[in-house]
Amino acid sequence: MPSVTLTPDGAGNACLTVDGTSVATVSIGANGNVGVMLPSPDTTDVYVTRDMTDSLTNKGSGIDASATHITGRKAKRPDIAIPIEDGIPVSPSPGAFPLIGQDDYLYDVMFGMRERKHMAIFGDTGCGKTASIEWLTALLNWNLVIVSITPGSNEDSFIGTQLPAAHEVTGAPTVEWVDRMIASAVRMSHDRPTVLLIDEINRIRDVNEYASLMPLLDGTARLTLATGETIDKGDLVLVATANPPQEYVGTNELDPAFENRLPWTPSITYPAFADEALALLSRVPSLDASVAKRMAEVVSKIRKAGEITHPVGFRTLLMWAEAMVSGCYTWSESAERALVAKFPDDERQPVRNILAMWNVDEAGLPVA
Predict the structure, then answer these.
(1) Interacting residues of 193 by C-beta distance below 8 A, sequence separation 6+
(2) Does residue 36 lie within any of the structural domains?
(3) Out of 72, 114, 251, 312, which could bridge 245 as a Cys pair, Cβ 3.0 to 4.6 Å?
(4) How far apart are CA 265 and CA 109, in angstroms?
(5) Helices 103-114 & 129-140, crossing angle to 10 degrees?
(6) How large is the C-alpha radius of gyration of the chain?
(7) DSSP letters along 308-358, please?
(8) CB of 153 closer than 8 Å to CB of 209
């Protein structure tokens, strides 16, 4: 049997050792959350770890300004280190909160980013597909260009178009080319690593809408515009997110030829409810920890209920929590507005039945 000890370090944490070797630092936050911080061998590295309060740590202290890499870490696998870019991106990421309980998935995405492999990420709504890319590109200081597919999307709206203009000398009517987001992203990739994120790509209805993207993703590695101009691909990674087509209205199967050009396919699902409760507390720290756990359990049961098919993502859980801590609504009132109202009429009563499985007072606190 190995010898395991937990020794206070004098800084409010405890050092976990196995057979005399330090393996982690354990901390307990003011809200009772337990953080586990793995030691990093280099102070310039930032690790994606199993820290319950902030999945990104540098010796437990957050992101160090001197960090040169972020590194994905997975048990019994080699680290995946990606350099952080200097300077200011032309199209910076909006950033996002760290994903808690999604370590294996983040490791997979970081592999794809390091190897510059185009990716298709499949997963339910609100489980962190887009947020993970926003977070990682913000940490890496890469460009991020997001294209959101809608029923009316076409090449003019997401690649570029020709618009009426006046000749700069004669003033005669003419046309000029205007880049949309995809053409802009390809140009940006010549100067800095760039992620082109096509959100909900399987909402594209016409397979011909993929045609201009195909050469960008294969050996040709270039985008041809309607004007005949070609733009060679620089340091570009295309990431396409998609909801499972069999479960979501308005989604379609990806064209096989297009999907074949997205060789790396990380998959993500909702985290365990305990991790989702921790993620909720990280976003709404004033929420009572027992209430956060109860909310996450409710949502977990809804997702598993056979008679309920409408998806419920983290954004819904977050709105419920924010309404609760506002003091303006009780448990039942906030649940009705933020959660139950999201479901079609025939699924609302099953949702209410799940909510009624726990005894709570009007504030949502456990009843003794």
Answers:
(1) 85, 140, 142, 143, 235, 236, 237
(2) yes
(3) 251
(4) 9
(5) 50
(6) 24
(7) --S---HHHHHHHHHHHHTSSS-HHHHHHHHTGGGS-HHHHHHHHHHHTTS
(8) yes
Identify each DSSP E strand in the chain by its residue range: 4-8, 13-18, 21-28, 34-37, 45-48, 56-57, 69-72, 80-83, 119-122, 143-148, 160-166, 173-179, 194-199, 222-224, 230-232, 236-242
Quote the CA–CA distance of 94 and 257 in Å, as a whole number: 32
Residue 67 lies in a domain: no
**Structure token digits, residue 139:** 């940490």
For residue 240, is it within any domain?
A: yes
Instruction: Please tell me the distance from the alpha carbon of residue 273 to that of residue 280, in angstroms, as a whole number.
Output: 10
Distance CA 125, CA 161 (A): 31
Burial, 279: exposed, middle or buried (Cβ in 10 Å; 0-12, 13-18, 19+)?
Answer: buried
**Are 133 and 239 within one domain?**
yes
Structural domain boundaries, residue 28: 1-60
Kindly give the confidence (pLDDT) of every residue in the chain, 368 residues in length, as a single tens digit, with 9 standing for 90 and above. Answer: 556 566 776 556 666 665 566 555 655 554 444 454 544 444 345 555 433 334 443 333 345 556 788 888 888 889 898 999 999 999 999 887 888 888 889 999 999 999 999 999 988 888 999 999 999 999 899 999 998 876 666 676 678 777 766 666 676 666 676 788 888 999 999 999 999 998 877 666 666 666 778 888 888 899 888 888 889 999 999 999 988 755 544 556 677 778 888 999 998 999 998 999 999 998 999 999 989 999 999 999 999 999 998 889 999 999 999 999 999 998 999 999 999 999 999 999 999 999 998 887 776 676 75
User: How many domains is the chain built from?
Assistant: 3
Q: Which of 80, 45, 74, 81 is nearest to 61 (CA)?
A: 45
Rounded Cα distance, 114 and 326, in Å: 42
Interhelix angle 314-325/289-304, nearest 10 degrees:
150
Q: Are residues 284 and 262 in the same domain?
A: no
Question: Would you put residue 141 in left (φ > 0), alpha (ψ -120 to 50) or beta?
Answer: left
- Predicted TM-score (pTM) of the model is 0.78
pLDDT for res 229: 87
Residues 253 and 120 in one domain: yes
